Structures are given as C-alpha cells and as structure tokens.
C-alpha cells in the first residue's frame, strides 16, 4: 500500500489532479484518504496486534496535530471568507486527513523488518530514477513530463522549465524546483544509509540512488537542495565510521572538482545564490512585517488551515503559513510531530543487535529534519510531493520505533487491559469505563457549538473613486491630462488621506478586505494591476473597501471617505491656482452594500467533530493514566509483600 502511494506521489506529475478538488485532487492525496479509511476499518475488525504499541509517540503527536487543524477549521467557519478560501479550507481538511492516513499506515502497517526494508529500498530506487529524470532535464533543456498526457487528470498550470544563471533548473515530475529539491533531500539520507549498510543488494543497486541524487542536487541550481543535503548529513555523518568518513570526503571532493570542469559556470552560479542581493530572499523578509497583524486577529488557532492563499500574501515560508492559518497551537503541534519523529528514531537504537536498523534511525531522522528545514523556504503544503514525502518519512519513523522495541513487541495482546478484545470493543470498553470524562468534555462543548451557530456576518462595500482629467490643459494648470499623470495625482491624494485616516493593519494583494477576518475596518488604496513584488499602478482610481457590522455604518463611512478625498483633491489644486474648470475632479461609483454571513452549519459540524475527538482523546488519556497508576500501586504493594517475606525468616534466625 505504501509502495502504491509512493508511485502515485513521484511518478504522476505533481501538478496533475482532478480539477474541481483543487489541492486535494492529486491521485496520491486521494489514495492517502483511502489509506486512512483502510486503517480505521482494519482497527475496527482486528484484535490488538503484537508490535502495535499502546502509546505510540508518533501516533499521539499526529492526533494532537489533527485536532489543532480541526480547531482552526472551526475558526475559519466563524469568519466571513470568500468562497475560494472557504472551499480551500474544506479541501485542506481532506489533505490533512490524507497525510494522517499515510502516517498511520506507515506506523502500524510495517510490522516486520523485511517489509520495512523493502519499502525503504523502493523509496531509494524511485528517488534515484526521480533524480535521473531531473538530471536529463538539466542536460537537455526538455521537460519530457509534458509529453505524456494522463487521461482524467488536468494540469494545475505548471510553467515548464525554469532557468537561473543560464542553467536549466530541473524539477522531474515536481511542480517546482523547490519541491524537487525537498524530495531529493529527504530521500538522500535513506539512499546513503542503504548503500552503506544494506549488504543484501549488489553494489550497483545499493549505490545508484545515492550517486544519482547527489548529482541531481548539485545541478538543481537551488539553495534548498544544498541546505537540505547539509541538514540530512548533519545527523548522518557522525554515525559513520571514521574510515568511511574519510573516504566520503575524498569521493565528495573529487565529485565537486569533476562537476566544476564538466559544467563550466555552475560553481559561480551556486555561490551567487548565497549572496545578499538575491531578490527572492528580499521578497521573503519583506513580508515578515505583516505577520503580527494577521496573528493578532486569532493568535491561538489561526484563521483556518488552507485559507491563506496567494491573493493575500506569499510568504514562501510554511511555518509562517502554519502560524497564521493554525495559530500558535497548530504550529506547536506540527513541530511536535516533527520533533517526535526525529527523537524517537535518533535515540531509540538497539546498539548492535541489528546494524541495518540502527543505521536507519539517524537516516530517517535526517530525512525528516531535511524536509522540516526546507519548509522554511517555501509553502511546502501547497506542493503534494514535498509534504507527502515528509509525512511518509514521519510514518516510517514511527514504524522504526516499533521495530526497535523488541521488549514491547513480544508482549503482544497481553498489553491490552481488561481483556477488551477487538479494536471496536476495546474502544467501547474504554468509553464505558470513562464515560464521565467524555460527558464532561461534550457538555463543555455545547455552549461553544450554540455560539458558533449564531455568529453574525458583516456588511461590506467596495467602490472606486475615479480621478477625471479636465477636457484640456491650460497655462494655469501645471498638471497634464494623460492618464499616467492623473495616476500620480491620485496617488498623492491617496497618501495624504491615508496619513490622516490610517488603513486597516492588513491589506491583501488581491483578496477582499473582509477575507482577512477584520470585522470593523476600511482601506483606501490605488488598485495594483501587478503583483506582490512587481507593482503596476496604471489607473487614475482610488479603491475603497469598508467592512462594518452595520449597513448604516458602511454608508456613513463611504460618504465620509468620498467627501474627504474629494476635498483634498480640490484644495490642492486651488492652492496651485488651478481654475475650477481646469481641475481634476473625483467621480465616485455608486456604493452597494452586501451582507456576508459566516458558515454556521459548517461551524456546528466542525465543532461537533472537534468535541468528539477531544472527548475520545480525554477518555483514552484518563484511562491510560489510571492504568499506569494501578500498575504502579500494584508494583509497590508487591514489593512490600516481598520485603516482608524476606524480613520474617531473618528475624527468626537472629532470635
């Protein structure tokens, strides 16, 4: 099942999918949803299986992350969002469910060493082929992927081959070079470790993936690939023997020298990427100033997973995206999943019992670290291959933790308390024992659910104020009548007005003002026909957006803004001595006010699911704590009885 997912993830181009489903329409995401359903069905019908730990760290961390995403979804339903963002939040829920299915099948589906190694070998081999395709694109300048149409799947708008410094930036089947680099960086530590430790394969099969990935990473012409390689090697190299580290340094050095001579100019391009003048770096840092404004609206649970599209702001940083979309709690939960996966594989080793599994621990930790690090350099959750490979690596970390715990695997069903039996009966037994815990959580959730249904909407208006030039210029009118000149005057008036009446703290690039979550705000600005980084103000118009909780307040604000801008425009020209008939005038559009409601029904459903998840989690947590407390008391009483039995014979002998 994991192999099928891997093939769908890497072989089918990342931009192909079922169009109406958006980001959730990729074949790998849909298959991940099927994996989640299979996992649930399997646990409902199968008795507790030896090797499935009652307290699996990766599974617990994932559960917390999913609940945090669901909480952010509830917040999004309470806000007034454009349809595009509302639909994106629904699709993001499906995507997160798909990633959860991948992790859970990875954690619980690989129960023995051979199946675990087989999956890792397939990942390494497909990664090598993936790298070879990218290398071929670099050498030939052809995409190749566009030559193979896939029936039933539409393209998400990939733009072919990109270039940098005169070199082609390969991407294989990825949507972008950054996604390609992320996948290579996560597979590299696995390929290297299998090449070193997996003696069951021939030398060519062992080393082909690692060599191909290293070559492809060098020619990818992206900082992310190099940083990802370094991140994975930071955890991997210290585990190698000293003799192998020396050989690796020599081989790596010779390889770099060979690439320097075989591809002239590549070294200079790579070094230039780390210079301070790169505009892509500046575009990221310039966006950080508005993070606090977004976060101030809903700091703990965010604005809703999947609702921060490019029409608001492009941050090129998944952690900032998670912080704004899922809040402090959601970001902490995701970091908890990453750190749990790294720690459980990096430090849970059997020290010589199985050298291959021992070596794969740091490799899997390096894969997760590389993927997590590169999330800081692009919006990884918008790229199916990057995020899919990251969650697959996290699931494999959980499987490695299971395999590296023989003392728990041999206990098998005996770890199940109370003879609860099959999964559904065990869950039912726990809920019956701890019904009062679940009931308290559900009762506490009822008021919140009722409030979610009754959250009011907002009133919104958007209209333009057109700056109209006079019929002709006169000697007393220093302004020209071309539209470009009138645009400059409109910009002057707009800045003068905004200096006295500040705009809302958040101004989206293209999205409407109400989509930010603000419920009492206004914005006055020149419409930008360009984008976030390349602006283009070519219309002599000032756009006004108003969000209020009352229709009359919207109309009053619109009238006040119109009068204020018109007055500034006229007064400036009067001071310049422009005749009234030669003045640039302001003509407002008719103001239409629309009422936009929150998604009350979705809020109730989301709040209900969240309450159910919290109640089940609380019941299981309370039952686990109680079981551990009983076991501890049992050990204490048993120890006291044993000590009494030892002291009684001793006292008779002394007497």
TrEMBL record:
<feature type="transmembrane region" description="Helical">
    <location>
        <begin position="322"/>
        <end position="347"/>
    </location>
</feature>
<keyword id="KW-0812">Transmembrane</keyword>
<keyword id="KW-0472">Membrane</keyword>
<feature type="transmembrane region" description="Helical">
    <location>
        <begin position="62"/>
        <end position="84"/>
    </location>
</feature>
<dbReference type="InterPro" id="IPR051533">
    <property type="entry name" value="WaaL-like"/>
</dbReference>
<feature type="region of interest" description="Disordered">
    <location>
        <begin position="636"/>
        <end position="655"/>
    </location>
</feature>
<feature type="transmembrane region" description="Helical">
    <location>
        <begin position="208"/>
        <end position="237"/>
    </location>
</feature>
<dbReference type="GO" id="GO:0016874">
    <property type="term" value="F:ligase activity"/>
</dbReference>
<feature type="transmembrane region" description="Helical">
    <location>
        <begin position="20"/>
        <end position="41"/>
    </location>
</feature>
<feature type="transmembrane region" description="Helical">
    <location>
        <begin position="359"/>
        <end position="380"/>
    </location>
</feature>
<protein>
    <submittedName>
        <fullName>O-antigen ligase family protein</fullName>
    </submittedName>
</protein>
<feature type="transmembrane region" description="Helical">
    <location>
        <begin position="249"/>
        <end position="274"/>
    </location>
</feature>
<feature type="transmembrane region" description="Helical">
    <location>
        <begin position="119"/>
        <end position="139"/>
    </location>
</feature>
<feature type="transmembrane region" description="Helical">
    <location>
        <begin position="435"/>
        <end position="455"/>
    </location>
</feature>
<feature type="transmembrane region" description="Helical">
    <location>
        <begin position="602"/>
        <end position="622"/>
    </location>
</feature>
<feature type="domain" description="O-antigen ligase-related">
    <location>
        <begin position="210"/>
        <end position="335"/>
    </location>
</feature>
<dbReference type="InterPro" id="IPR007016">
    <property type="entry name" value="O-antigen_ligase-rel_domated"/>
</dbReference>
<feature type="transmembrane region" description="Helical">
    <location>
        <begin position="90"/>
        <end position="107"/>
    </location>
</feature>
<feature type="transmembrane region" description="Helical">
    <location>
        <begin position="286"/>
        <end position="302"/>
    </location>
</feature>
<dbReference type="Pfam" id="PF04932">
    <property type="entry name" value="Wzy_C"/>
</dbReference>
<dbReference type="GO" id="GO:0016020">
    <property type="term" value="C:membrane"/>
</dbReference>
<keyword id="KW-1133">Transmembrane helix</keyword>
<keyword id="KW-0436">Ligase</keyword>
